[in-house]
Design a protein that fits this description.
The structure is a homodimer. By secondary structure, chain A is an alpha+beta fold. The first copy, chain A, contains seven helices and five strands; from the N terminus they run αββααβαβααβα. Strand 4 of chain A pairs parallel with strand 5 of chain B, so a sheet runs across the interface.
Chain lengths: ~160, ~160
């Protein structure tokens, strides 16, 4: 851990406070760093922009990708004021940064009524046992699209 | 399962095909239905808009919330051409629709090289054992923001 790491996390925490104070959303902030510089910042904006996916990490990842004109965050580091929820964790894996620093953890989040653990538990359940009902239909029809993809020559993989 | 369910899933599958053919992204489509009507549609647009979070479900959820001017999809049903990845599953739990219909499953996705299972496995690991390195720092400093949230009187919970 370096002074720079502390400085970037300090900024993520500041963003968490800023977003909360301005009623953007919950108390969470994040920055994306590349080559020792912050290239994107975000704070939770769920309730102000009516977007349940606008968590700090997702906002920062989207902005960083827009700036770098890429859909992957190779050689980037994410600093987030709280351990990512399952959605943000998924977003992080799709964006593929090098490393993630986090400050608070999921237990701290639960203590202020952000129950990420509930979603972690749901994800681990068999699909038919989840609280939101999941029903499969038309698998065969949908598989024809996957076949088309397999045979597609001009595809961009990710 | 009703004729309407089949019709909505057919549309999700059509969107998957459209998105793929127009090189928007991977072969995945989704719709959000409320009161028996499609209120939002989406297809995967990751590689065309440089947004690793632009999966079909996330795109459709964002559009539906924008349209309904809310950050929750109460009384809505999501139809997606493939079982949601962990990121989309997280987004679904935050949006809280009533039900989800899916067509292909994660094994079908893996067969065309979309390895959602890898991310499911990573999520279940202890944070220190993941392939992307997660490091905790400045928890104490970040907790002060959570305290501010706890004491905030004009907060919008979600």
């Amino acid at each position: 851990m370096t002074d720079k790491d502390l400085q970037f996390m300090k900024r993520a925490i500041e963003l968490a406070n800023e977003g909360m104070k301005s009623n953007a959303g919950g108390p969470f902030g994040a920055v994306v760093v590349k080559d020792g510089e912050i290239i994107a910042e975000g704070y939770n904006s769920v309730t102000s922009v009516n977007d349940p996916t606008a968590h700090a990490e997702v906002v920062a990842i989207r902005k960083a990708c827009e700036k770098l004109e890429t859909f992957q965050l190779k050689d980037c580091v994410i600093y987030t004021s709280c351990e990512p929820c399952p959605m943000c964790l998924g977003a992080i894996y799709w964006a593929r940064p090098e490393k993630v620093f986090y400050a608070c953890n999921r237990e701290d989040a639960a203590a202020i009524d952000f129950d990420d653990q509930f979603i972690y538990n749901e994800i681990e359940k068999n699909i038919e046992d989840r609280q939101i009902k999941f029903v499969q239909l038309m698998q065969k029809e949908a598989l024809t699209v996957f076949d088309n993809w397999k045979n597609k020559e001009d595809k961009t993989e990710y």
